[in-house]
Design brief:
Layout lengths: L5 E8 L3 H10 L4 E14 L4 H7 L2 H15 L4 E5 L6 H18 L9 H16 L3 E8 L2 E11 L2 E9 L8 H15 L4 E6 L3 H5 L3 E11 L3 H41 L13
Parallel strand pairs: 6-7
Antiparallel strand pairs: 1-8, 2-7, 2-8, 3-4, 4-5, 5-6
Length: 277
């Protein structure tokens, strides 16, 4: 293989045959570090929309039917898709604006805070659009843009890579509505899967996605210097894991303490209403 120091595979399927074979071939003098990574969630698409609705819980099925009837079938909600390369620049600007404002409303910087990463996403969109491996969809409610998705496509599967939502329209559930519409369209197109990628957010299970176990694998080349750097890297990972576990433990303890105190203190109804403080 020539000179190399380390190989780092982040977020690969735990039982991926290609990665497993590569690791097997490199075993010997190499050092290996493996840990579980965030799971990915994929919905295996049925043959038709009714079959998909039957997969949902009773409550979610009722909500989905009402959402489609009241918003989509009534013409209030309309899905738009970039059809020509000339539409990409304006559509990407719209998507970036939605994404950044939503992330910032949550106290996060957003993907496009990094100029380098933002440039990469724009260039990737152009290149993959020409290969039909990328799509940009956006949703309007009564003519107003409320949500957009940056999706990848391949081998009959849609990968929901990144999204943007109008923070002033959260009550209308635009993100959920866009997901429902895109899933229905994917079923109509005869695709075989809709992948929400990594992260254990509860909404993914509600859509009847199934988790796939993922792994982070790092291999260090033979040699003292590579081994020392690998050991320092592993120690750093373990230290961060330990610190995160301590923060979680303190948080759980704090929740327990608050609940205990609240249960022990009797709650008295005030004799009269206080004015604003």
């Amino acid at each position: 293989m020539g000179h190399w120091d380390s190989l780092d595979f982040s977020g690969v399927e735990a039982d991926d045959p290609v990665i497993s074979r590569l690791v097997e071939q490199l075993q010997g003098d190499t050092a290996e570090y493996r840990r579980a990574a965030e799971r990915c969630w994929r919905l295996t698409l049925p043959k038709n929309w009714d079959d998909y609705l039957a997969m949902l819980s009773k409550g979610h099925r009722k909500q989905t039917r009402r959402m489609v009837r009241d918003a989509v079938d009534a013409g209030q909600a309309v899905l738009h898709t970039v059809e020509h390369a000339e539409q990409l620049p304006e559509a990407l600007r719209m998507f970036e604006d939605l994404h950044q404002r939503r992330r910032q409303s949550l106290g996060q910087p957003g993907c496009f805070a990094s100029r380098r990463f933002a440039g990469f996403l724009r260039e990737a969109a152009v290149r993959m659009f020409d290969q039909r491996a990328f799509e940009l969809n956006w949703l309007t409610l009564d003519g107003r843009v409320v949500a957009a998705d940056y999706n990848l496509r391949g081998d009959g599967i849609v990968y929901a890579y990144q999204s943007g939502i109008e923070p002033e329209m959260l009550d209308a559930q635009p993100g959920r509505l866009l997901n429902v519409i895109q899933i229905r369209r994917s079923i109509e197109e005869g695709l075989r899967g809709y992948d929400f990628l990594r992260g254990d957010e509860p909404y993914k299970a509600h859509f009847r996605c199934q988790p796939r176990e993922m792994a982070h694998i790092r291999l260090a080349a033979p040699g003292t210097a590579a081994r020392l750097r690998h050991g320092a890297w592993v120690a750093g990972c373990k230290a961060r894991d330990w610190a995160a576990a301590q923060r979680d433990a303190v948080g759980r303890c704090g929740d327990w303490a608050r609940a205990t105190i609240e249960a022990a203190i009797p709650h008295h109804r005030p004799s009269r209403q206080r004015g604003p403080s």
